[in-house]
Amino acid sequence: MKMKKSRIVALILALMMCFALASCGKKAPVEEPKAEGTNAAALKMGFIGPLTGGAALYGQAAERGAKIAVEEINAAGGNLAIDFKSMDDEHDAEKAIYAYQQLQDWGAQVVVGTVTTTPCNAVAAEAFTDRMFMLTPSASSPAVVKDRDNVYQLCFSDPNQGTASAQYIAEKKLATKVAVIYNNADAYSTGIYQTFVESAKTNNLNVVSVTTFTDDTANDFTVQLKDAQQKGADLVFLPIYYTPASLILKQAADMNYNVKFFGCDGLDGLLGIEGFDAKLAEGVMLLTPFAADATDDKTKAFVEKYEAAYNEKPSQFAADGYDCVYALYEASKKSGQDVTKLSAKEMCELMIKTFSSPDFSVNGLTGAGMTWKATGEVSKAPKAVVIQNGAYVGM
Questions:
Q1: Per-residue pLDDT tens for 320-351?
Q2: Are 178 and 236 contained in the same domain?
Q3: CA dist 382 to 47, 160, 265, 369, Å?
Q4: Terminal CA-to-CA distance of the chain, rounded, Å?
Q5: 177 and 107: one domain?
Q6: Are 356 and 374 in contact (CB under 8 A)?
Q7: Pairwise CA distance, residues 360 & 353, whole Å
Q8: Full-prediction pTM beyond 0.85?
Q9: Can you tell me whether residue 251 is helix, strand or coil?
Q10: How many CA atoms lie within 13 A of 169 on its CB side?
Q11: Can you tell me the distance from the alpha carbon of 181 to that of 184, in angstroms, rounded to the nearest whole number?
């Protein structure tokens, strides 16, 4: 009896091993990636930006805008959804590269980002070698796209911002004497300054004072403001980010220096600085492709969703992030291919071909009929806003 039992047990074990070996020989079917809450095959889209740190207002806004776009696309129930993952680079080049590598491990096919210029330049070098397509919402230095056919910008490049600023100040007769304060250690600031000065000459703008600072000295601007004041400047051009700009506005008020201030998209964020007195920004002008007070249906719907989700008005960076997602989505659809099955390298070549095509355009929050040059630069009309009663108002 004992022998029979042991034989039966051995037979059962042998059969179990056979079934196990048979099942090992068969591969489970590979499921298409799906975005959360949808049945559609998903494009894996990564995002990199400063979600914490000194430039967090930019990164958080861009990420929030991007997420609203993703939610809209997925809720629409089409045959292409977006699987979205964001990473924090803290406005640091090394951390941005690490974030990019994490997205690669996740399986990202395209990247929205990075948000600021220095980290974007670092990641772009890696992505060029890897053949990963990047669409940056706001890294505006020409260096980001130079000799990199896989990197495109949704924002104006720095040279365009400097040129357009000088033209706008001259055409609107905003000043007779102009002072410039810029960060000579920052690619964004330096690039805009250089083209502004060149354009100022051709537009007969009298630049009477040019002073600089670095990140290490961005706490006391008394010398720069006194130089502008003594030389009679009635407008100070600030091609810088909002954090040092907030200190300049405070110190100018302390000096009783009543002067106009004009900046570019880097100033968009002033009103979101915790503890900053918004009255100090009253009358500040800046070039930006988006104004939250616009009355078109698209902007109103976006502003309503953003305010409901985050209890604040969206900045240009939020609109940039939103438009980036839709631009990549529209390019994917226009290709006519099932992009969810493409590798990152295959997707890169497809996006380059589509974005650089003269018949591809996008109607977004930051511009109607946006097109792109093969160099990666976007073509759209600039707009100017002024801060009034704590809000950005179109000029």
A1: 999 999 999 999 999 989 999 999 999 999 99
A2: yes
A3: 25, 9, 11, 13
A4: 98
A5: no
A6: yes
A7: 10
A8: no
A9: helix
A10: 37
A11: 9
